[in-house]
Design a protein that fits this description.
Elements lengths: L1 H22 L2 E6 L3 E5 H15 L5 H23 L6 H16 L5 H11 L3 H27 L6 H11 L4 E2 L2 E10 L4 H18 L3 H13 L13 E9 L2 H7 L1 H7 L11 E2 L3 E11 L2 E2 L5 E3 L2 E4 H29 L6 E3 L7
Antiparallel strand pairs: 1-2, 1-11, 3-8, 4-5, 4-7, 6-7, 9-10
Helix pairs in contact: 3-6, 4-6, 6-12, 7-12, 10-11
Length: about 350
């Protein structure tokens, strides 16, 4: 009975302790300028969002590959520290602002950037730290391999033409409409939706399908923008020259009902009220662009003056630049890992 009791006690207390010990095990050690362990717990935290996106756990081989990549990042950061390479707060802000501007398709105002940072809340420090690490690694790479990376040759006219001829069948602009849009946004609560519906109903009465009144409402919505992301004083937002293409991607973005109505309207016609999950909307079609096989000097996108030729040239250059960066990074990591025991991997702890 006594032996049974201690066995039960071990099962109840010992297993959790062993599990906790395993989570704290060092699965890799980086030692360029200091000892920096990577624990099983840290590796699992890195893998969790990747495994969730894949819908399955990583295999041992995949864990090893991910661990190598994480160890290489830590190694480069230690090398940057050794060489006194630093990143300023202003550089972090500039990188964040550029990333957010690219996502929004335009440069953010100071107020919009401040609001975006405020919305991060408790995640702000983690986001800034991650950006800082990325900038440090970029700086270190360029400090060692800038000449090699900058030696990438730009594509010739022949390169561009060859790429175009091979991909001509894909260079199709789908049916596209240019719209003027009035949107009355609302939040997730019923009170917000009710207030938006009152504004939308007032617009229905005021506009009544009249093109001139619709245009006046669009101008009023633009004039009353606050510039900080809040709903303007008019109670709605408006956009002129908004392009929508007849594609599955566009339908997913704007909704099936919105897309169907947009392509059913005649040029100059005002739509009925459209309701979706985020807003009540009205649209007016100002231009219809039929499907077209694009040539080299056509604009890639009606909302952007970049031509097919320029798009292809930049795409080829980006590919070549990325190949050069990948090669330079591999050489850099190989050079850093030449020293004995700079990176030690404990593969026995990858089996969980």
């Amino acid at each position: 009975m006594r032996r049974l009791f201690f066995t039960a006690l071990f099962l109840a207390v010992g297993f959790p302790a062993l599990f906790a010990q395993n989570e704290a095990q060092t699965v890799a050690m980086i030692e360029l300028v200091k000892k920096e362990p990577i624990t099983v717990r840290q590796l699992k935290a890195e893998l969790a969002p990747l495994e969730q996106a894949r819908g399955r756990p990583y295999s041992v081989a995949e864990r090893r590959a991910a661990l190598d990549e994480l160890a290489n990042q830590r190694l480069i950061l230690q090398a940057a520290e050794r060489d006194r390479i630093a990143v300023s707060e202003s550089e972090i802000d500039a990188a964040l602002r550029e990333s957010l501007s690219q996502q929004s398709g335009r440069a953010l105002t100071d107020a919009e950037y401040a609001q975006a940072m405020q919305q991060l809340g408790t995640n702000t420090a983690a986001v800034r730290q991650n950006v800082s690490k990325q900038l440090l690694m970029q700086k270190y790479l360029m400090s060692k391999k800038q000449a090699q990376i900058n030696a990438v040759k730009p594509p010739t006219d022949e390169d561009v033409l060859n790429w175009f001829n091979l991909n001509k069948a894909k260079m199709i602009r789908p049916d596209t409409v240019r719209l003027n849009l009035i949107s009355v946004p609302y939040g997730p609560d019923s009170a917000s939706k009710l207030r938006a519906k009152e504004v939308a109903d007032r617009l229905v009465r005021d506009i009544g399908g009249n093109i001139s009144k619709f245009d006046e409402a669009v101008l009023k919505g633009q004039a009353s923008r606050t510039g900080n992301g809040a709903v303007p004083e008019a109670g709605y937002v408006s956009t002129r020259g908004f392009f929508v293409s007849r594609t599955a991607e566009a339908q997913q973005a704007v909704g099936e009902k919105f897309l169907a109505i947009a392509f059913s309207l005649k040029q100059g016609e005002v739509s009925p009220l459209i309701e979706n999950d985020l807003a009540y909307q009205f649209i007016k079609v100002t231009e219809f662009l039929p499907q077209k096989a694009l040539e080299l000097d056509d604009p890639m996108d009606p909302a952007n003056p970049v031509t097919v030729r320029q798009y292809i040239r930049q795409g080829i250059m980006n590919e070549r630049f990325q190949v050069a960066v990948d090669q330079a990074l591999k050489e850099l990591i190989d050079d850093l890992r030449k020293s004995r025991n700079v990176v030690t991997i404990y593969e026995q702890y990858l089996n969980w």
